[in-house]
Design goal:
about 260 residues; alpha+beta; Cathepsin B, Chain A; eight-stranded antiparallel beta sheet; 6 helices; 8 strands; about 20% strand; disordered C terminus
């Protein structure tokens, strides 16, 4: 049974410690570095189903099966196609999944961006992540002349860990799935909020990295994906015109008298 927490507008479920990428399934030995594959496979599964979540305060009935299947399939792809102990980027992960004969993967990367973080003030990056998500979501919702998918996804890579963010425009619910184990007592996690509180979800995510892993990533990489064919050619990157305003941490130079 998953343990439930509520922090402000964010609802979190912590799964048992054995339900995570490195401890679950027959291919769990491949789970050390398979988080990117698992995240993308999970997003693709969500894109093909009716709305997963209907109520931000309830764990979706299909969450267990969805996460378990994604862990298994991601670990299998890693076992079959990836060199041991290798971390892979989003394009290489997509290529590996598509080349695997047992998986029909249809998501495409829209655009990639990144934001720097001040290790001494890690919560500053929460503001930047929130702004990027808000800007991108507005652009996605306001594309003219196209029948846009109902889901927008974002793979966030920070400190060599990948999580997936799903935004469902039909239900106005955003959720994060993290397939890693968390501390000594919890496995994977599922956290969700209303999309109007996606800033709260981002701040909670940053706090979780600090609290559970003592992790203060210098760079957060974000890849936005959706099921629209050729999306990168058809729609300009949502944050391109804001790129110069994205915060990038720079060390202060010391001055001597």
């Amino acid at each position: 049974m998953a343990q439930y927490d509520e922090i402000g507008n964010v609802n979190i479920w912590w799964f048992p410690q054995d339900f995570c990428q490195s401890r679950f399934g027959d291919y769990r030995k491949s789970g050390t570095n398979s988080c990117t594959l698992i995240s993308l496979i999970l997003a693709d599964k969500v894109s093909k189903m009716p709305s997963l979540s209907q109520n931000v305060k309830e764990l979706p009935e299909k969450a267990w099966d969805l996460i378990g299947e994604s862990i298994n399939e991601g670990n299998i792809v890693y076992h079959d196609l990836i060199s041991p102990n290798l971390n892979i980027n989003i394009p290489d992960a997509i290529a590996a999944i598509r080349s695997h004969q047992k998986i029909n993967f249809r998501l495409e990367e829209w655009f990639f961006t990144q934001v720097g973080s001040d290790p001494l003030s890690p919560m500053i990056v929460g503001v930047e992540l929130s702004r990027i998500f808000t800007t991108t979501l507005d652009a996605f919702k306001n594309v003219d002349g196209r029948d846009m998918p109902s889901h927008l996804f974002a793979a966030i890579v920070a400190d060599r860990r990948t999580v997936i963010v799903s935004i469902d425009l039909r239900t106005s619910i955003a959720f994060i799935v993290d397939s890693h184990h968390h501390g000594n007592n919890a496995g994977a996690l599922f956290a969700q909020s209303d999309i109007h509180y996606i800033s709260d979800l981002m701040f909670w995510f940053i706090s979780m990295l600090d609290h559970i892993f003592s992790s203060h990533p210098v760079i957060f990489e974000i890849s936005f994906l959706c099921a629209l064919p050729n999306v990168a050619l058809l729609i300009p990157p949502a944050v391109k015109k804001h790129a110069n305003n994205i915060y990038k941490y720079k060390k202060k130079s010391s001055k001597t008298a």
